[in-house]
Design brief:
It contains five helices and nine strands. With 192 residues, it is α/β, with parallel strands linked by helices. It folds into two domains: 90 residues, no CATH class; 61 residues, DNA Binding (I), subunit A, CATH 1.10.30.50. A hairpin with a 2-residue loop joins strand 5 and strand 6. Bound molecules: zinc ion (ZN).
Length: 192
């Protein structure tokens, strides 16, 4: 049974990519979010999803029964309503919401370099909640210290922190566009 279409012009994706995540699209082609390749494979084989039309980006998967090409994006056969939910406040999610950048100086950050700054310091009654935390680099965080934003002349917050939903956090980053996701991530779902 040939469920996965192979095309001559398919773009081969580096096999060494640490995570083979597949972009799941609703039947309306609205982006739902990233799922594991295992879940994507199961959705395809059960007929609950299909590859996008005219789409040539695949992960090559090696299995005991041979290689097969898994599209980097799949579309659900039936529209499903995905309720919005607020994402848990974790370093990883803060990094994602803040697009991998220090919110004071725009330095690119990774999981190894991000610090989470409380805009209104907890020592002054600030809460540990989405509207009070931002991704910050170590130097900015140290520089700001325990000061309120109003007390800082040397540091500016680039964007007011906001509460993200699954629609924001589970989306791919623009830097993932090599996987052929541009046409969906350029028009992301509305911010929650
Ligand atoms: Zn910084």
């Amino acid at each position: 049974m040939q469920l996965i279409r192979k095309t001559v012009s398919s773009v081969s994706v580096d096999e060494s990519l640490p995570r083979k995540e597949v972009l799941l699209l609703n039947a309306s082609e609205e982006s739902i979010g990233l799922i594991t390749w295992q879940r994507a494979t199961s959705l395809l084989f059960s007929g609950k999803a299909h590859p996008p039309y005219n789409f040539d980006y695949y992960f090559r998967l090696s299995t005991t029964s041979g290689d097969f090409d898994l599209p980097t994006a799949i579309i659900l056969a039936k529209y499903v309503r995905i309720p919005r939910r607020i994402m848990p406040l974790t370093r990883k999610n803060v990094l994602k919401r803040d697009e991998g950048m220090c919110q004071y100086c725009s330095t690119p950050l990774g999981m190894d370099t991000i610090t989470v700054d409380h805009v209104h310091p907890t020592s002054k009654g600030g809460r540990n909640e989405w509207r009070n935390v931002v991704a910050a680099c170590q130097p900015c965080n140290a520089k700001k210290g325990n000061r309120l934003l109003s007390e800082c002349r040397d540091i500016n917050l680039s964007r007011k922190p906001w509460v993200p939903t699954n629609y924001n956090i589970l989306q791919p980053s623009p830097k993932d566009s090599l996987l052929g996701w541009d046409r969906w991530i350029l028009k992301p779902a509305t911010r929650g």
